[in-house]
């Protein structure tokens, strides 16, 4: 009588499954190992009313009663972050020595800044600067140069906003007078910043979104666009294919 091979085949499959289940797992590459815990370092700096980010870090700005600068990140990264004050401006960047830049960082770096009196915020490079609460001041200047991003709620009599390059700026709050300028392909998103009057200028292919109540003086050179909300009296000067429109 011919013996069935099915039981033998079933046993073989069970043995293969067991061998696979108990196969040891090879350790992952060094990059998969858990990184060291972040360190927090409070910096002692002089008094400042302006904050500039130069590099690719993240800066979080808060307005409060006491000035403070705190750097958070991997220990070897934190020591490479430079925080200096010159003529009332806090500059956040990297230590200037051969071969060192933000590209060498082992992980994300955040710098928490508390300012008492604010006059200006700026980003130079590809960094990200944003505010945690509404920033107030008499006259506030906000600027982006490069491909960075700046986001801030503002309450000021006068706001001067400029983007040079491909960067982006997002503003909300209110102001009596807004000056908005874009040079390049960047954007100013200020549809939630209520302004009484505004002068807007675009040179290149950039865009502005505004919210103006009384008067808007718009200038475009190139293919950029200015979009506005509200019912202001509009004066427009366009050279190129750009346009000024409500929307």
- What is the succession of H and E elements? HEEEEHEEEEEEEEEEEEE
Indicate the proportion of strand residues: over 45%
Question: What CATH architecture label of the largest domain applies?
Answer: 3 Solenoid
Question: What's the main sheet like?
Answer: 17 strands, mixed
Low-pLDDT parts are: 20-34
Rg, alpha carbons: 27 Å
User: Termini distance?
Assistant: 89 Å
Describe what is shown at a glance.
With 247 residues, the chain is mainly β. The chain contains 2 helices and 17 strands. The longest helix is centred in the N-terminal third of the chain and has 16 residues, at 6-21.
Task: Report on this structure.
Residues 47-232 form the Putative auto-transporter adhesin head GIN domain. Residues 1-21 form the signal peptide. This is DUF2807 domain-containing protein. It contains 2 helices and 17 strands. The protein has 247 residues and is mainly beta. The protein folds into 2 domains: 39-117, no CATH class; 122-247, Pectate Lyase C-like (3 Solenoid). It has a 17-stranded mixed beta sheet that branches. The chain is elongated and about 55 Å long. The model is unreliable at 20-34 (pLDDT under 50).
């Amino acid at each position: 009588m011919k013996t069935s091979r099915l039981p033998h085949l079933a046993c073989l499959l069970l043995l293969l499954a067991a061998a696979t289940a108990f196969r040891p797992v090879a350790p992952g590459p060094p990059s998969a190992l858990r990184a060291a815990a972040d360190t927090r370092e409070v910096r002692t700096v002089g008094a400042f009313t302006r904050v500039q980010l130069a590099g690719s870090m993240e800066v979080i700005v808060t307005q409060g009663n006491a000035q403070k600068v705190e750097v958070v990140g991997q220990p070897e990264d934190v020591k490479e972050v430079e925080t200096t004050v010159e003529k009332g401006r806090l500059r956040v960047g990297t230590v200037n020595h051969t071969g060192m830049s933000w590209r060498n960082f082992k992980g994300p770096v955040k710098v928490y800044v508390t300012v008492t009196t604010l006059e200006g915020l700026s980003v130079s490079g590809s960094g990200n600067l944003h505010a945690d609460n509404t920033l107030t001041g008499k006259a506030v200047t906000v600027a982006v140069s490069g491909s960075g991003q700046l986001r801030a709620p503002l309450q000021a009599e006068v706001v001067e906003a400029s983007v040079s390059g491909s960067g982006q700026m997002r503003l909300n709050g209110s102001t009596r007078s807004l000056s908005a300028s874009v040079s390049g392909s960047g954007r100013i998103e200020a549809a939630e910043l209520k302004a009484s009057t505004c002068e807007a200028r675009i040179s290149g292919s950039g865009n502005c979104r505004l919210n103006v109540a009384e008067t808007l003086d718009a200038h475009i050179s190139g293919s950029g666009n200015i979009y506005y909300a509200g019912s202001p009296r509009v004066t427009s000067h366009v050279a190129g294919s750009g346009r000024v429109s409500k929307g």
